[in-house]
Amino acid sequence: MKELSNAKKRVLKNKTEFRNFPMVPRVVYGRGSFDQLADILLPKRKNSDAPFIFLVDDFFQDKTLVTRIPWLFNDQIIFVSANEEPKTEQVDALVHKIRQDFDEQPSGVVGIGGGSLLDLAKAVAVMLGNQGRAENFQGWDLVGRPSLYHVGVPTISGTGAEVSRTAVLSGPQKKLGINSDYTTFDQVVLDPDFLGSVPKQQWFYTGMDCFIHCVESLQGTYLNAFSQSYGEKAFDLCQDVFLGDLPKKDAEEKLMMASWHGGMSIAYSQVGVAHAMSYGLSHVLGIKHGLGNCLVFQHLNAFYPDGVTLFKQMLKKHLIVLPTGICVQLSDDQLDEMVHIALAMDPLWENALGPKWKERVKVEELKEIYLKI
Amino acid sequence: MKELSNAKKRVLKNKTEFRNFPMVPRVVYGRGSFDQLADILLPKRKNSDAPFIFLVDDFFQDKTLVTRIPWLFNDQIIFVSANEEPKTEQVDALVHKIRQDFDEQPSGVVGIGGGSLLDLAKAVAVMLGNQGRAENFQGWDLVGRPSLYHVGVPTISGTGAEVSRTAVLSGPQKKLGINSDYTTFDQVVLDPDFLGSVPKQQWFYTGMDCFIHCVESLQGTYLNAFSQSYGEKAFDLCQDVFLGDLPKKDAEEKLMMASWHGGMSIAYSQVGVAHAMSYGLSHVLGIKHGLGNCLVFQHLNAFYPDGVTLFKQMLKKHLIVLPTGICVQLSDDQLDEMVHIALAMDPLWENALGPKWKERVKVEELKEIYLKI
């Protein structure tokens, strides 16, 4: 009986069935709720020598937000560029710096920014609680010891990084998340006021990350009623935001919730073809995740016909013209590497196409798609 | 600045704005996921003398479920009738018994059943971590010390007790929840297989608890985009379940998720007139919460016209005939007490009708509604 149950668990490991999913245990929502952060952090301060580390998108370096960060004692604010995807070596460097700067283990880490900053904050919190290099933790459930207390404050919505149990990093070998129960934030602050300042293209690309992963999860083979209900709500909200005519503030709030529910929908599902191929694009060319998803997804009629139709309506409505000619000059080696990275994402392909996915995906087909980009 | 912020918080206390909401930190979903419970509890066992206490609806006393409860060492299974609403003195008696039976503080409490059992388990876990009588904790944020680790396994869906931060109890003075951050379950197991065995009337009344609180929260004045998104999804799922033509298993799974999202929608909202009046009905006549809500809601056209129309379609489709003549023989004193209990639920009325609700609700109007029941 026990044997059967363990055997079953092994089979189901990648399929996420029966996963004991870690939800963010604390969330505060509301316009202006960022100012609650001081009160939230206070009881988590171990002592005046154990600082909070604020990792902040350098977009905010000269903005008034900085004056609202509740730093005390020897807290540290580190501005980080989100122009590139977060990297394992960047995580290692941050952890090294923090360990050098302070004798004591910090009280916690606060990430303020979009998906890149949130994933960085999650990864730094994990690595401050563990020994070794971040690249060794890329994968599923490789984290042995608890992370430091960590808080996420999304300032751009769409990635779902605020609720997910992964911190996606580009490493020397692969672009892959630190997927673990210790990765999930201990606290999230959802303040839609931040969304007012997001540049339009970034707003669109990041929002499309949510839309696309809803399409992938709702059409995936892993889906169950739990994830479906979250995915459907996120999908509906994305349509309201990107195809409806909502007042600006309503659209901001609904996009923030779309991202939240979209992230939750991954609890018992997975993303699919667009994300797998976008990972290849990011790893080889350093293209940001949101844009990468859009670049791939536009050519995925064969996999997601209805989703692609809606996506093109959204592009048109918001006058977004995607860049072209990105892959034409790639060497054969680079193209091979991209396909290799994409095809290494087994769970994503299995979710998209079922257990026999390897029979259904041709290397040439993927190369053709990449070359259209 | 600090003063202003505190003053603002006082004003907002009942309105839940900026509440740092405690989400259930762990959830497992899936048919058969109940069998994960052994693995979930194992690392939470403090030692072999610190038992788990299983509070189980006595409906299961002679069912095979009992053989699947993962009890070990000196764990205790206590069967509890859910025929009556849970009471503060019942909580006190359970806590007293557990303290007498064991020298050590238990490892935790597991509630298996519908809303009554879940609320009992939450209240027992709170009181095992605190001193005094349960009635002294009825209210908002009166719990000073952490509760014991506690797990909820809903076997009927609709109340939202599996995600809420309250444990509703009838006390000597009032029917009111222990609303606190310590009340929320540490772990929930969502296994839709349980829903196959729920008697039809109970299925309907409990499902309507969800439907009705969605109507109340979506139409309420406290609502924000966070709660709206959950409430809308729960509302849609309820319509699918009670007015659609879903296969039985799909309907079970969707109702389980409706209850979950419906409970979450209360994070930044409140229930309203039906729940306030239903509390009066329960307290004076001991009528179960789900049925009480239905009895009241059918007569609330003046407050929730669209919701009441849908509700009547649901009654008709499922051939449910609500009992009548329940309040006709009440004494004036009893009727006064009912109205008094209902009107004491300030936040519910304020949510329903706004800050000037006292001008808009007449005692006579409530009596008239009660007398129709």
Automatic annotation (TrEMBL), chains A, B:
Provide the alphabetized UniProt keywords.
Oxidoreductase
Q: Which Gene Ontology molecular-function terms are recorded?
A: alcohol dehydrogenase (NAD+) activity; metal ion binding
Looking at the record, the residues that make up the Alcohol dehydrogenase iron-type/glycerol dehydrogenase GldA domain are 26-192
- InterPro entries per record: ADH_Fe/GldA, ADH_Fe_C, Alcohol_dehydrogenase_Fe
Q: Which Gene3D superfamilies match?
A: 3.40.50.1970, Dehydroquinate synthase-like - alpha domain
Q: Does the keyword Transferase apply?
A: no
Domain of life from the UniProt record: Bacteria
Ranges of residues in domain Fe-containing alcohol dehydrogenase-like C-terminal? 205-305
PANTHER family with a match to the protein in the record: 3-DEOXY-ALPHA-D-MANNO-OCTULOSONATE 8-OXIDASE (PTHR11496:SF104), ALCOHOL DEHYDROGENASE (PTHR11496)
* Protein name per the record: Iron-containing alcohol dehydrogenase
Q: Which organism is it from?
A: Croceitalea dokdonensis DOKDO 023
From the broadest rank down, the organism's phylogenetic lineage runs: Bacteria, Pseudomonadati, Bacteroidota, Flavobacteriia, Flavobacteriales
